[in-house]
Amino acid sequence: MTDNGYRALVRRPAGPDGCSLVDVAVLDTPALEPGDLLLAPLVAGICGTDWQILRGDRPDDSPVLGHEGIARVVVGSKAFAPGDIVTVNPTHPTDPGFLLGHNVAGLWAERTRIPASVVNAGLVVSVPSSAANDVLIGALAEPLASAIYGLEIAMAVFEDTPRSLVVWGDGIVGQLAAAVWRQAMPETQQLIVGRNRDSHNCIAADDPDLPSRLAALRGPVSAVLATPRSATVTALTTLDSHIDHALTVDVHGGLDSGPVSLRSGEVDVAAVRAANCGGLSSVPVAKTLQRAGAGPLRLFGHRGVSNAHLRAAIGALTENAATFASLLTQVTDLEGAAELINGVLQSGNRCHDGRRVLKAAIRLEGAAA
Fold this sequence. Notes:
CATH superfamily of the largest domain: Medium-chain alcohol dehydrogenases, catalytic domain
Structural class: alpha/beta
Distance between the termini: 7 Å
Largest sheet: 7 strands, mixed
Radius of gyration: 20 Å
Order of helices and strands: EEEHEEEHEHEHEEHEHEEEHEEHHEHEEE
Number of domains: 2
CATH architecture of the largest domain: Alpha-Beta Complex
Strand content: 15-25%
CATH class of the largest domain: Alpha Beta
Number of strands: 20
Helix content: 25-40%
C-alpha cells in the first residue's frame, strides 16, 4: 500500500503479438457500495487461464487478473468482519457479469473489491485463520477443487469403473486431476499425454506411438482433458478416433462454441461442457453419443466449482501438504511476478530461472497493511 492507493499487477495494452505484459502500478482504492467487501489478498495464484488471457487467446478484459487466492477482509459486511480470512469462489453460477479476474478486477493486487451481490450469493468462503499465509492453499485450492468436481461428475455418470484413465495435459490441472483420480481409483491404469517423457506412463501429444497406445488401453476408459483452449478439440477428436472401448470424457479445458466433428456426428461440445456450473445441479449432466462399431462416448464438463468443492480442496491441502508441495514451483512478490510473467511471455517458454513454471504463487507484501 501507498499513501495514494494500492499496488497491483496491471496489464499493458496488447502488443503486435497479441500478448499483454504487466507492470506494478498504483491504483486508487475502489469506492464501495453498501454490502461490498474490500479484501487485502495475501496469496494469489497464477493460473493457466491467466496465461491464456495474457497471450491473447481469450477475450477477458479485466486489467487486473487473478481468480485464485486467499485474502484478509479489510472492510467487512454483516457476514464478514475485518480480519476474517476468506477465499472467493470466482465463478458466479447464475451471473455471467461476475467472473473474478476475468471481467472484474482480480486478486493480483493489494486490494480487491467484492460486490455485495457476490457476497449475498454466498461466493465468499471463510478460510481457517491458520491458512492466512499458506501459499499452497492460496495457489492450489481452486484448481484442486475443479479436479475434485470433475471426478465427482465422472463417478456419477460412468456405468462401470474405468480400467484406464487418460489425462491429456500435464500442467497443474492435469497433475491435480491425476492425483485425485489415483487416490479414488488406485487400480485404474493412467496414461498422461504431456511433456514429461521420462515417465513410462507419459507420452507426448505428437508422439507417433500415441494412437497405438490409446487403442491398447484396457476398457472402459475415462479421460480428463486438462488442455489449453487451443488444444481441446484436437485432444477430444484424437481420443474419439483411437479408443473403441466405452469412453467417458471430462472436457475440463475450455473451447470455442460451435460444432465439433466426432465419430457420432457434430456436437456443440462447449454447450455440453457448460451444462454443469458451480455444482448447482444435484444430478450432473452428461451427453451420451452412440458410435458405430465402438462403445458409447459420454461427454461432460463443468464451469466453476461449489463452495463445498473449495472446502474439500482446502482440507486436502491442509492434511496432505507434502503430496502437493512439489507442484508449486515458484513463490514471489509483485515485482518478481511481473518479471516472471513478462519473461515467460517474451521468451515464449514456460521457464523462469531455469525451472519450468508449473504453478506460481504471489505473496502480496502490503496485504496486512
